[in-house]
Design brief:
Layout lengths: L2 E6 L12 H10 L4 E10 L7 E3 L5 E6 L22 H7 L7 E6 L15 E6 L13 H20 L2 E4 L2 H11 L7 E3 L6 H5 L16 E6 L8 H10 L3 E6 L8 H7 L4 E3 L8 H5 L4 E5 L4 H5 L5 H6 L4 E4 L13 E4 L4 H12 L5 H9 L3 H13 L15
Helix pairs in contact: 6-7, 6-11
Length: about 400
Amino acid sequence: MKNVHIIVATGEWEQDNLRYRRHRLAEYLQKQPETKEVIWLCPAPHQTEASFSVLPNGIKQWLVQDLLPQKMFRFGRYVDRFYKKKIEFFLSYLKQFQEQYNLILWYTFPGFPMLADLFNWDKVIYDCSDLWASPISGSQNVLSAFREKLISSAEDRIVKRAETIFCTSDYLRDRIVAKIGVSAAGHVRTFENGVEFDLFANQVQKVDGVLPADFEGTVLGFIGGVKPKLDLALIKKAAQQKRDWLFLFVGPDGTGMNHEFQQLLKEPNVLWTGSVPPLEVPKYMNLIDIGVMPYKPSPYNQAVFPLKLFEFLAAGKPAVGVHLPSTKKYAEHAVYAHLETDGADEFIRACEELENEADYGDRRKMLAKTKDWDDLFRAMVEIVFVKNETASVNKRLTPR
């Protein structure tokens, strides 16, 4: 029996031109011979002409309109009465599959929690990649407290409903285990983020015209969305102390060009490219000498397992991570430096130690190769279907 996979995602497929774990999961499922189709179900802040479309990769995208386009109205994604009627047409579409196919619901964020109870799913899975209820900036206020309560409640419902739960860090797993109890947590497992190994390890080209023509020093690079979770103040201090280094940021601005980011870009040795096509990222990776992941100390970042760690290593680049406890286990001489301080001197010292360690490229790639996305998703899917070999033939819609 073939499978229809529904991925509950945070936003439209090409939102901010970044590829997250959920994108790679959807594409992996799409290319499996047992897959009938993959549906990307996501909220849409802005009005669109059609709620349904087929993406170039063959994945079907289904949009659920937000209350209003402003960010403050995204709370409707977690409150049943604001989305229930909007997904009725989608559920009607699924009826055509319920007799002949396994219907697998994958939550990749805790939106639309009622969906798990509106259909007779063969499997409900929660792939938890973030501490969703915690503010990404680390700042707390009345609005963030309201948001935290709302999202926590939605996530609790999904956690109780899911037969299988994957977490990208042990921190996330421990939090979910605390919710449901150790005795009931046998279906909760840690699967960290991976890397498209061949894409990064085998790319030898560099992008032209990005670095200053006369620059011959060390390039420290951050690649990904520039978001409030980053410690931009740390990078500014380091840039001021190390004028012979170039700090390269590659990726879209997720800060709204806030004051801190604007001030950083005024430093003469800080360069920002803006957003780049995902498949071009390995070429930008080849411009840098050291990968940097400077995160703020916050509850949100305690849970993070960065997507870029194994991408840096697959490209043969050493990396430095700040306030990323999930990565501490990978700390290794000339491979990865893990810091638990936001002191600029300590950060600079760690980077200086990595500056002249080109001979360890093979070791970095060896570690990254053990984290290939296909291997990771293959193991996850095997877990999902181990108890699904005798799926029910007589399934029916069960609204509540």
